Amino acid sequence: MFPIFAFLFCTFFVIILLKIDVKLHNDAFTETLIPFAWLIIAGSKYLSHWIGYGQTFGTESAFTEGSPVDRYYFLMLTIAGIYLLIKRKAILLNVIINNKIFSIFLLYGLVSIFWSEIPFSALKRFIKYLGNVIVALVILSECNPVEVLTNVLRRVAIVLLPFSVIFIKYFPQIGREYSVTGGTMYRGVTGQKNELGLICIFFGIIFIWNLLKIYKEHNSYDKKKIIYIYITLLILNIWLLIVSNSATSLFCFSVGSIILFFGNLNYFNNNRTRVCIYLSVIVIFAILLQYMFNIKSDIIQILGRDDSLTTRTPMWDFMLGMKTNPLFGTGFESFLTLDRMQLIRSYYGVSSPHNAYLNTYLNLGAFGLLLLIMIYINTYFNIYREMSKKYYESIFKLTLLIIIVMYGYTEAYIFGVNFISFGLCFISIKYDT
């Protein structure tokens, strides 16, 4: 098949699936347009990459300024989200009061710009990150936020998954990249293979969640017809997850799927105490196994990696050896200045810390890392309290929380515009409708 025909067929296929999905769920696509527009870029590449308007990577202007196309795109969606929240009469003060720890985290991130080496760039990155918060609040202000989120992410998946396959097979200049050793790495619609693995975690969880929901609710025949579409897309998603060769993503997806399956068993139905007891026992058991048998090394080897996590651990030591303020860090998203990025890249071939907690420490210091951990703990207890009223929605949130916590060990996606940072905003922010 000629590439252009494959592209056109894929476009037609995606449009049909989107129409079917909107029709079967009886909601207006336009009502979720802002989150859809935000997440489809968060899950692929920035708009400047798609339209071919960007600056050469590695130049100081490209690194510090970014693309005006992306800047205005995200700013436009953020402003549109703020307008929608005002229209829905969302009270910002209530949001701040109900989310004290998260609000302090944001305030600290803003204040940290004052001691940043690149304050103007840090400010722009902070405003961009705030867009995650605004778009998350747009969804949280809906009557059924989890349902709306799953609808939006499913539709993003309907677009990105088929096009990832098409780009990998027919447009290798877009869908593939090559390592320094010449090996082929598949990235689909994303910027690199780990990003492809990341979106596959979320899409896979969404499809499993939807299939379990359909099974639980015994939907009508018309809705059951879409089960075949969901299963097909789930298989497509798993294939992309495997070819992405992202060990962290594969492990997180497997753990998340197990949590969803067990959380939906009748044995755990609406029993939050039982869920949390079993989860605590599993965590304690895993800690004991690690202490006695060092199972982390076995798991890493099973996933096809060495104990250094593909040179990550030596790089972490190297970054920790750089001069940063241990208490307050270098400022919001300010550790990777152009000089530091080029130095790290010259030694290890990559510039990302590949660890969310190290990244937080380097940028915001021990104080920022403590706030992040407090957000995790607070989110867990919020989910626990919600379980008595919205059990299945809480299981979904708990699954996302565990995935985000685990994923942060080998990837640094807490900040910026991506599924991890957005997902953390969604599950962490408490919004009373």
Give your account of this protein's structure:
The protein is mainly α. It has one domain. It contains 20 helices and two strands. The protein has helices spanning 3-25, 33-42, 47-50, 60-65, 68-87, 92-98, 100-111, 119-140, 145-170, 172-175, 193-217, 221-244, 247-263, 272-293, 295-302, 312-320, 338-348, 356-386, 391-407, 419-428, and strands spanning 176-178, 184-186. Helix 9 (145-170) packs across helix 11 and helix 11 runs parallel beside helix 13 (247-263). Mean pLDDT is 85; it is low at 55-60.
In short:
With 433 residues, the chain is mainly α.
> Helical content, roughly?
over 70%
Query: What structural category do the secondary elements indicate?
Result: mainly alpha
The H/E string reads: HHHHHHHHHHEEHHHHHHHHHH
- Supply the number of structural domains: 1
Largest sheet: 2 strands, antiparallel
Strand order of the largest sheet: 1-2
Number of E strands: 2
Using the CA coordinates, give the radius of gyration: 21 Å
Which stretches are poorly predicted, pLDDT < 50 over at least 5 residues? 55-60
Query: What fraction strand?
Result: under 5%
Rounded average pLDDT: 85
How many distinct helices? Answer: 20
Write out key terms for the chains shown.
single chain; 433 residues; mainly alpha; two-stranded antiparallel ribbon; globular
Element layout with pairings:
Blueprint: H1 3-25, H2 33-42, H3 47-50, H4 60-65, H5 68-87, H6 92-98, H7 100-111, H8 119-140, H9 145-170, H10 172-175, E1 176-178, E2 184-186, H11 193-217, H12 221-244, H13 247-263, H14 272-293, H15 295-302, H16 312-320, H17 338-348, H18 356-386, H19 391-407, H20 419-428
Antiparallel strand pairs: 1-2
Helix pairs in contact: 1-9, 1-12, 2-9, 5-8, 7-18, 8-20, 9-11, 9-12, 11-12, 11-13, 13-19, 18-19, 19-20
